[in-house]
Amino acid sequence: MSERRVDWISSPAGPLRGELRVPGDKSISHRAVMFASLADGVSRITGFLEGEDTRATARAFVEMGVRIEAPGASERIVHGVGLHGLRAPAVPVDCGNAGTGMRLLAGLLAGQQFDSTLIGDESLSRRPMRRVIEPLAQMGARIDSRPGGLPPLHVSGGQGLRGIDYTLPVASAQVKSAILLAGLYANGETRITEPHPTRDYTERMLATFGWPIEFGAGWARLTGGHRVRATDVVVPADFSSAAFFIVAATLVPGSELVLSSVGMNPRRTGLLQALRAMGADIWPANARELGGEPVADLVVRHAALHGIDVPVEIVADMIDEFPALFVAAAAASGTTRIRGAAELRDKESDRIAVMAQGLRALGIEVEEMPDGATIHGGQIGAGEVDSCGDHRCAMSLSVAGLVARDVVRIRDCANVATSFPDFVLLCNRSGFSIEEARG
Ligand code: S3P
Fold this sequence. Notes:
This protein is of the alpha+beta class and 439 residues long. Helices cover 29% and strands 27% of the residues. It is built from twelve helices and 23 strands. The protein has helices at residues 26-38, 52-63, 99-110, 130-138, 173-183, 201-208, 239-251, 270-277, 322-331, 351-361, 391-402, 423-430, and strands spanning 6-11, 17-20, 40-46, 67-69, 75-81, 93-94, 116-119, 142-146, 150-156, 165-167, 189-193, 213-216, 219-223, 233-234, 256-263, 281-290, 293-301, 335-338, 365-369, 372-376, 383-386, 408-411, 433-438. The strands form six sheets. It has a four-stranded mixed β-sheet with strand order 21-22-1-23. Strand 4 and strand 5 (75-81) form a beta hairpin. Helix 7 (239-251) runs parallel beside helix 9 and helix 7 runs parallel beside helix 11 (391-402). The longest helix has 13 residues, at 26-38. The two termini are 16 Å apart.
């Protein structure tokens, strides 16, 4: 989405100290705008992520006739139009870099009476959409794509959907959510079974917005034809954005950092388990609920890490945190093995390849497997690496620079604005040393 070419120069620095709050959760922000738009009445969202991805989703609903006010930063007032109140957008809906935006909207738009087209940036245009097209087609939807199930997606309206009983072939909260959103418009019951439980924000939020839904770990079911009732949503800080600081404070001697109000949904916090098994010192303080989600203030102190075999059962619970874990593993003593994580190859970039290449360029020995990698920890060296336009790889590689022997230049970092626009500012405030350079 970002046109600018920006490189970062991350230098050894630290320790990291103080307290900071990272921006609002991306997954929850996308969903909050969607459900508030479909609601009868006015909803207020606080803690909304002001990232390019979530703003693109909000813009999509504005184009479909929803009035959305932004009275302050990270705040939205959404004047819902009701389940059947959306209008045909005059232009293709641009989801930017956001897989969540495109996949969830595919399900939602499949239930409308009008035709629509979903487009995205270069990275999103390479990402697999067959995983949503197939189950939605089983529900009666008509979605045409480029060959290979690639975007743009042309969604034909007025199809008359029916509920399905669907077992997901891969663990994906986006696919699950697309089917549930189509299920709102379907006749009869929609049932979903997952191979591993994934984040359940769609299920929780539907319940908060008054839609009858039953769900548990790895399953969900609902029927179509109810109403979405407006409600206020408080978005916790994004665990995935906190992850870079968690790893950074763990790696730099003398660090003690507090990350406040971080979302602690158990389907998101697998990284904590992995890092603790590696020897990390991370404690949740003030555990409480915020907007129906568990949150805590995470206290992170420096600790020496050792390599582990990452348990396959926690892979889905840390799917977005592997770039950060690669860096933790590179700085740990011994070997870390990651397996059962083939999904990483279909994210904003092929994250196994990008992180393996980046760490190798910094002198770390990494072997790549189709579904993971083996990382031999050591001293991270200086050099130039390419994030390949992947926001999470860019931020993770800046953490590598923090503990490297000398300066690391990271290419192509502009897409960090999709999920964490103030990353560099917060980093430098807490003890990093990152300079932006025009590429
Ligand atoms: C997300 C689900 C995950 C995750 C993505 C956000 C969501 O994707 O990687 O960043 O908000 O539902 P998959 O469903 O493809 O695993």
